[in-house]
Design brief:
6-stranded mixed β-barrel; alpha+beta; 2 domains; 54% helix; 411 residues; two-stranded antiparallel sheet; 16 helices; elongated
């Protein structure tokens, strides 16, 4: 066996150019796989974390029936007497923070231009404790109860050509369907890092929203944070057991982000196609190298078999050559791919051009960060070796089935 290992190792360098091309195809294929997987996993985790931390929290409490029509932001399903509900939620050890809101469809106008947008009536104090909104103000000041002022995304303000202190008008429908309007002042501009919020939301004091929507002492949702995202399902189960499900719809972040999770499920299938393409690319390269090696060394194969090498020894020889190429290529590809992925994990990848070209409302910031699990890198090396060995099966079999006398007569 030691002799076969020595021969296989030496044979790799007999045609250095061809072996180098095969080595590079394996390294590039494995490296690209690691980078692509790292970026996709990082994007998925980052977008979900961003959605949770800026919009949906770990769990949400709605009036019964709201969830089925939540995309239309209905004002028909409201929670009355919400103060007692929020106070009770905050007594639960598994609940860290909670904030009440009214979300409603609105039109924002400056008298010339107008924009369909989502209004969010918020309890300024609890909203800041829960979502740290005051920390996301990039210009101006935070809002306070009773002020007919709004917080506007800096992107939307730029779209209107407005600054802090400029007037705007909110047009909406009340809970009863009547058209209402309110002149407000821009108190501050925010950027939470989530384009879905920055491009599509404005915030105003809860009491002002209740007044213009005719929703005295009513809200549409309570958003809360528990101990962690991983415990959200347990929190949902507990809350549904504690509160009357005929009165409330209580769901975790997984339900609220189901469309995003479905998108990533579809993305996983696309990733499998990428893997298949890389597998074909690597396999074709190795198979080509090994077949050419078999044809060029026909007389050598005949000589080895005449000296007592059995067919299984010839088969093992070529399989080992393919395995060496796969191991070397896999190791180098893993090192390079892992290093690039680690760099992207620390410094990220600027995708601002994508956000401005069709991803404006996707819950992800202008810079994405890859994810890398050092332990999983070992599996990419195994993948490289496995693909190499599988690709070497046919060439090895072809070399092993040669007849010694015919191989020796080959030119």
């Amino acid at each position: 066996m030691l002799l076969l290992l020595k021969l296989a190792f030496r044979n790799i360098f007999r045609n250095f150019r061809r072996s180098l091309l095969t080595f590079l195809s394996i390294s590039i294929g494995i490296g690209l796989s690691i980078i692509i997987v790292g970026i996709l996993i990082g994007t998925e985790k980052q977008s979900i974390r961003l959605l949770v931390s800026t919009r949906i929290g770990h769990a949400q409490v709605y009036a019964a029936g709201y969830v089925e029509e939540e995309l239309t932001l209905p004002l028909d399903y409201t929670i009355s007497g919400y103060e007692a509900l929020v106070d009770e939620l905050l007594t639960i050890p598994a609940v860290q923070t909670a904030a009440e809101r009214i979300l409603f469809p609105a039109t924002l106008t400056d008298g010339i231009d107008e924009l369909r947008i989502t209004g969010a009536g918020i309890d300024a104090i609890r909203e800041n404790v829960t979502f740290h909104l005051a920390d996301r103000i990039v210009d101006g000041t935070y809002i306070a109860p009773g002020e007919e002022k709004i917080l506007l995304g800096d992107v939307v303000a730029e779209l209107f050509g407005k600054r802090v202190g400029d007037p705007m008008t909110i047009i909406a429908r009340t809970k009863y369907g009547a058209i209402t309007a309110l002149d407000v002042e821009i108190a501050g501009l925010f950027n939470v890092g989530n384009p879905e919020i920055d491009n599509n939301y404005f915030f105003l004091p809860l009491d002002i929203a209740q007044k213009i929507l005719e929703m005295e002492n009513e809200i549409t949702e309570v958003t809360l944070f528990g101990n962690s995202m991983d415990e959200a399902d347990a929190l949902e189960t507990y809350l549904n057991g504690r509160f009357d499900t005929n009165i409330y719809d209580i769901v975790s972040w997984k339900y609220s982000s189901k469309d995003l999770l479905k998108l990533y499920s579809m993305k996983s299938k696309g990733t499998q196609v990428i893997y298949l393409i890389l597998f074909i690319m690597i396999s074709a390269s190795i198979m080509n190298t090994m077949l050419m090696s078999v044809y060029e060394r026909t007389r050598e194969i005949g000589t080895l078999m005449s000296l007592g090498f059995r067919r299984r020894n010839i088969l093992s020889l070529f399989a080992l050559e393919g395995g060496f190429l796969g191991a070397f290529g896999g190791v180098i590809g893993t090192i390079i791919g892992g290093a690039i992925t680690y760099y992207l994990k620390i410094y990220g990848l600027n995708i601002e051009f994508m956000i401005k070209s069709g991803f404006e409302n996707f819950p992800i910031g202008s810079r994405i960060y890859a994810e890398i699990n050092p332990a999983s890198l070992f599996y990419f090396i195994l993948i490289g070796v496995s693909i190499a060995l599988l690709s070497a099966v046919y060439p090895s079999w072809k070399g092993a089935r040669m007849e010694p006398t015919e191989a020796l007569r080959a030119v």
